Amino acid sequence: MKPLLIQNGRIIDPDRKRDEPGSLLIAGGKIAWVGRGKESPPQTDYDVIDAEGLVVCPGFIDLHCHLRQPGFEGRETIATGTRAAARGGFTTVCCMPNTEPPLDNKATVEFVKDTAAAEGIIRVLPIGCVSRGRMGEELAEVGALAAAGVIGFSDDGEPVKNSPLMRRALEYSRFCKLPIIDHCEDTDLSQGGQINEGETSAGLGLRGTPNAAEDIIVARDLLLSELTGGWVHIAHTTTGGAVDLIRRAKEKGVRVTAEATPHHLTLTEKMVKSHGTSAKVNPPLRTERDVKALIQGLNDNTIDIIATDHAPHTEAEKHQPFELAPFGISGFETAFASLMGLVHRKELDMVTLIAKLTAAPAKIIDKSCGGLGTLATGSTADITIFDPNREWTVDTKDFASKGKNTPLDGEKLKGRVMVTIYGGNIVYKDESIK
Asked: What does pTM read for this prediction?
């Protein structure tokens, strides 16, 4: 395969603190050369992508998604999910273990890795269970799971409700040097909750989930992390209270990282009024005040990364009565464009956004898969090229994902991924790129 030159783009590489015009050359699956301005590469025989007017950055990394395989292939497969992720600019995705069977042993982890190698088009890194069968009663074989190549542990979809179990998991995390990724929800308090508790839930006559249901478990996890010295990662943070708790814990030196999702950063509970079950997600969409707190958390690094929590469902599942429909939004293909709305509204600068999708998550998974999230010479050629000003209308009929469940269907967004390169190979290219 001939080398590939990406020329005349705006190169943004937060890992290298670089934001300037330039070009880069890919050869043998690696970044072979990076030039400034109009500099020419040291060789002349290569294919070319003209990135004039486009941004060239490291491939996006998603620390939290649901690929549904094994067990729920009607919703998504590793093949369809990785194609959808590539269309969204992602070159690495980390899949949650709430499959059937769950990823609580070496065999199921190996199944995911083997299937991804055979059928996926980007990198798939599995996350193992905290507890056996995700039952919350007995610690999974975390040492064996770590040896099998998981990048963290989670019972996502359910919290680690048992505090002694969470303590033991955090103690193990010190030795594994892998995070315990917790879905923070006091399920006794949120039981039956369909959307955020407040004016919207009252007006719609739906049982709500209060912010306190999240804040209580976040506070517990932070206290246990401080007690054990273990590494807790707070999944899909949604409340202003949780942001404040994480901020104070970091000031004290607690080992905590945290994520927020595109939908919690850009949408509010009001979307449920107009979009019904397509806006039903757990944790729920919150208030404008919570959204502003999350954005502030991104800007001051209280929130370390952005992760999609891509959660595809079938149309039949989402078309049930509200109380019966499952939680979740299909997010791979709209994540970046929806986040660019924050940039265009000047609530977040572009370099920070790219850092939260590249260099920051790469640091979290560095032990398992080093050398990602950078455009350094010699690094793996995982690259995303996007047009920050390209306007387009979301049409779920065009999704590569099996999941069409998004409240953004029909919405006009500004910002579009044009090319995704994984390991030096083009895995997605917009039809307008020649």
From this structure: 0.97
